[in-house]
Write a structure and sequence with these properties.
Oligomer: single chain
Distance between the termini: 27 Å
Order of helices and strands: HHEEEHEHEHEEEHEHEHEHEEEEHHH
Number of helices: 12
Shape: globular
Largest sheet: 6 strands, mixed
Radius of gyration: 19 Å
Strand content: 15-25%
């Protein structure tokens, strides 16, 4: 199983995670850590029940936002949406009475604005990490996975890299992806500069060509991209820390603040998948293992404000 949940401060303090920075229109960065919990909402909205589920059943189609990131959610060579999160959506929504799942590709930084403002899609299905900043803006499902970090390094790991602290202490060059929270983990560990690249594929190339010593990403992402490349390897997965606290990386589906009924119905089906073991069977083709399965709940990742239900 995934590592047990430790002190909650590691989640609600400075624990932003992979792709955790870009949440505003056009990819505006939210650099503040430690915002209050998920039930606090912007002035323009509040958590409500909503009737979107009924409308989706009437139309027979749900639109999911994806961000073109392997293995979390992307469009394959045949033009079909696939990945860990879309695969889950394709199972759950038909069970909710919505048989067709239609993908709307966008940039990761545009996912939350596309859901809450432009309303280009009905749910974010991109393996989005749950953190207090985002919980101010959307309703999350309970997490469907918990992730550790890893590095892409040259074959043989010549610098003996294991953690972000190793990068800092040895003065090595590190890269990570656009909006990856690994950037903040590295800086918290004392890494002064992180080269920001478009994605893990660009990171692999940078390591293979010697432009950087390591590329930081999630364990599954790194493990997936290095396959069949003899010039690089993945380091052993590790739990990143910020200010001495574990920074947990748990991902889920995001819904509008006004659609609690849809979120709750989705959660109910998600829990059934977890209990039966079907969830692991669904995501296994995308590189997920028993180690990424988790019983963490949204309440532990984004504790509700007292007196307000999330």
């Amino acid at each position: 199983m995934a590592p047990p949940l430790g002190n909650n401060e590691g989640i609600t303090g400075r624990a932003v995670r992979r792709r955790a920075l870009l949440t505003g229109a056009g990819g505006a960065a939210f650099g503040a850590f430690g915002l209050s919990a998920c039930s606090r909402v912007p002035e323009e909205g509040k958590v409500q029940g909503g009737d979107l589920l009924e409308r989706l059943r009437d139309s027979g189609t749900v639109r999911i936002g994806v961000a073109g990131e392997v293995p979390f959610g992307y469009i394959d060579e045949d033009g079909e949406v696939t990945g860990e999160a879309p695969a889950i959506a394709k199972v759950i929504f038909p069970r909710l009475g919505v048989p067709e799942v239609k993908a709307v590709p966008t940039k990761f930084g545009a996912l939350i604005p596309g859901l809450t403002q432009a309303r280009q899609f009905d749910v974010v299905s991109a393996g989005m990490y749950i953190n207090p900043t985002r919980c101010e803006q959307v309703l999350f499902s309970d997490p469907d996975y918990l992730m550790l970090d890893s590095f892409i390094v040259k074959k043989g790991n010549p610098h003996g890299i294991r953690t972000y602290e190793d990068i800092a202490e040895k003065g090595l060059k590190l890269a990570s992806g656009t909006a990856y929270a690994e950037i903040d983990y590295a800086k918290a560990a004392g890494v002064k500069d992180v080269l920001v690249l478009p994605d893990q594929v660009a990171g692999l190339d940078a390591v293979a060509q010697g432009r950087v010593d390591a590329f930081a990403g999630t364990n599954v992402t790194v493990r997936t991209v290095i396959k069949k490349n003899p010039r690089v390897e993945a380091t052993k997965p590790f739990q990143p820390e910020v200010d001495g606290k574990p920074a947990y990386g748990a991902g889920g589906f995001a819904f509008r603040l006004s659609e609690k009924n849809l979120r709750d119905a989705f959660n109910k089906e998600l829990h059934k998948l977890k209990k039966s073991g079907e969830l692991l069977r669904i995501v296994k083709p995308f590189g997920f293992t028993e180690a990424e399965m988790t019983d963490l709940t949204l309440r532990k990742l984004c504790p509700p404000v007292k007196g307000v239900s999330s």
